[in-house]
Amino acid sequence: MSGKVYLVGAGPGDPDLLTVKALRILQTAEAVLHDDLVSPEILALIPRTAKVYNVGKRCGKKNIQQEEINFLMVALADSNLRVIRLKGGDPMIFGRAGEEIEALRKANIPFEVIPGVTSALGAAATTQISLTHRRASSAVVFITAHQAEGSNSANWAKLTGSGATLVIYMPGGDYAEIAAKLKTAGLAGKTPCAVVARATTSHEQTQYTTIEQLHKVPNHAAPALLIVGEVVRLSKPHALAQEFIPAAIADSTGDLSEIFATLDGNEDLA
After folding, report:
1. How many CB atoms lie within 10 A of CB 153?
2. Pairing outcome for strands 111-114 and 4-9
3. Are the CB atoms for 193 and 209 separated by under 8 Å?
4. Where do runs of H (alpha helix) occur along 185-236?
5. 57 is catalytic
6. CA-CA distance, 225 to 237, in Å (whole number)?
7. Among this protein's residues, is 35 annotated catalytic?
8. What is the pLDDT of residues 35-65, one digit of tens each?
9. Among 99, 184, 200, 248, which residue is least crowded by beta carbons within 10 Å?
10. What sign results for the dihedral spanned by CA atoms 78, 83, 55, 127?
11. CB atoms near residue 200 (< 10 Å)
12. Which of 181, 176, 136 lies closest to 157 in space, CA to CA?
């Protein structure tokens, strides 16, 4: 008899964003293999009786190979344990869930996937950047700046040409290289973007900039992601005001307080 493996999404960091099912499964764990970037507050929810293994792989600091994680996961399940493979964000988005599912199927180990809030959605919520907007973007693309050796490189020109909002996971510290790729792909230097680090946690940092100024952004602590597109500009209150306020009123004064006072007194615009 073998145990069972649960691939569980831990979300972007805030323990309140765990799903009810994820929390329930985590609290029954007998063994946990967790990513390095799962927040301490979520790790504190693991039962003290469970065997806990940090199997995180940060870029440039891979202390454990994926094959070793697969072996450990299968071996623990073969020992008739309830194994939780705890991943930051959602297991199915840049979480290597596909490789681990293949290993579990090959070993005939029962498993279940528990989804989580991916970091792009956590960052969008806390920064109030709507990833889609009727006036700016009708699609959103998740892409990673780092790919496995031998894999097909993403066609950035095709992605930017679609007009979709781009959310770039794992941008690393070389923002100049990413900016060059985006420019080569056809995006204007004035295109707004935001770097969001440690989204939804008390250590969250957000920096707004443009593609042409992106190289000046300092390297933020992981996990971080980059949101690119006009939706970033629309997230700013003054930009929203200029979008929806009639041009005649907007041209009359640059003082937003006067503009909003005018709107409040105009029944036709209510």
Report:
1. 6
2. parallel
3. yes
4. 230-234
5. yes
6. 22
7. yes
8. 998 999 999 999 999 999 999 865 545 578 9
9. 248
10. positive
11. 22
12. 181
Q: Residues 145, 156: contact at Cβ < 8 Å?
A: no
| pLDDT under 70: residue ranges of the chain | 1, 57-62, 146-154, 237-270
Q: In angstroms, rounded to a whole number, what is the distance separating the alpha carbons of residues 58 and 142?
A: 19
b/e string for 236-268 if b means 16 or more Cβ within 10 A?
eeeeeeeeebeeebbeeeeeeeebeebeeeeee
Domain 4-117, CATH number (from 3.40.1010.10, 3.50.30.10, 3.90.1150.10, 3.40.50.1220): 3.40.1010.10
Residue 198 tokens read as 């440690």
CATH 3.40.1010.10 domain range(s) in the chain: 4-117
> Is residue 82 within 8 Å of 30, Cβ to Cβ?
yes
Q: Which CATH architecture has domain 120-234?
A: 2-Layer Sandwich (3.30)
**Entry pTM:** 0.82
Spatial distance between the Cα atoms of 56 and 62, rounded to a whole number of angstroms:
8
Cα 90 to Cα 159, 182, 259, 262: the distances in Å are 22, 26, 42, 45
Contacts of 108-113 spanning 24+ positions with Cβ under 8 A: 108/2, 109/2, 109/3, 109/4, 109/5, 109/73, 109/74, 109/77, 109/78, 110/2, 110/3, 110/4, 110/5, 110/77, 111/4, 111/5, 111/6, 111/7, 112/4, 112/5, 112/6, 112/7, 113/6, 113/7
- Amino acid at residue number 65: Q
- Active-site pick, 4, 36, 51, 57: 57
Q: Dihedral sign for Cα 68, 73, 77, 82, please.
A: positive
Domain with CATH 3.30.950.10 in the chain: 120-234
Nearest-angstrom CA–CA distance, 128 and 48: 37
